[in-house]
Amino acid sequence: MSWFERVARLRLTESTSHALRLDVPGPMDVVPLLCHRGLWWSLPLLRMTGIDVIALRMMPGVALAESPVLRLTGPTAVTIASSPRALMSALIPLLMTAGPELWAAVRALDVDQWKELEELQRELGGGPLAPVRRVVEERQRQVPSFTEDPRARSQWLADIWRTLDPQRPGGAAWSAARASQRFVELEAREPSTAAPSVERLVAAWDLLAEPNALDSGRSDVDSLLLHPDFAVSLRILMRARRLLADHRDRVPPALKADPMWALIEAVAADSLGYDVSTEMMVAAAYDEEAGEPERAFTMLTNQSYWNHVRSGRDQEAPLDAAEWLAEKSGWAELAQHLSVVRALRAAGPTFPE
Question: Is 56 helix (H, G, I), strand (E, B) or coil?
Fold first, then answer.
């Protein structure tokens, strides 16, 4: 059974959907829009409050049953769980932090509604939700009402997530978050008037080597930006690119020899980054010359991100290239699901650029 077929089996009653402002969208409802936003590498599961989408991150060589779970807002994604098995453990506390009405709604869930959510969890490969209920009830006694303090909510959420998802935040799913945090920390530590340290330049490089749409707005890897912020993410990425372009003489030679350096050099020619066709050439170089198809796949996701940032340009070329790369590299499940995404995109609505 493909994951698109599995998602089609997910169900929520109208009462639970209304209470939690959560629904199970049809693929045609969201996949074409996600492709337009450069997020063709995500497989939608649920929709929050009719706007944000909860999705699986499609990754080279990683089974979707083991893939991280994302929250998508516009062209930006943040990682909320290490795998679909942990989705409801992450999502229920996250919903509570969305507003006082949802905080109260989770507290008011009855036995049948908890069973309904547990059945959804089982469809995604997870187990009973009793541990989630216990932790939520315990934490609610400590914080009995919704608070308007975002920092307090973020810490409350982080404490729950570390309890319920042991892989958080040290697992591989959060490598982009850690890279973002490292770069932001070094920025704050070094005087703005001083020449950047090599350590800071390498941190900028490491950030840009990650999927650019993912987790780049984080300043605290233990918590989640309660509302993913595209503008914050874009500013951080642009500062990293400009830092490397403006101080190319201090960049270690090993980095300049890497195919990705062509993208960094091009930043000086365009205030929004570079000619995105360069990304495709770099992806090909990673795949053919360096034997690193995983990094090639990342570059294709980055091309789609910058396509959208620049002007909402068409995402067909990177998606087609990613499907070809998956087939060539033997990533059978990824290739299968990308072919479905491509077909849904072709059949769906078009969006003005």
Answer: strand
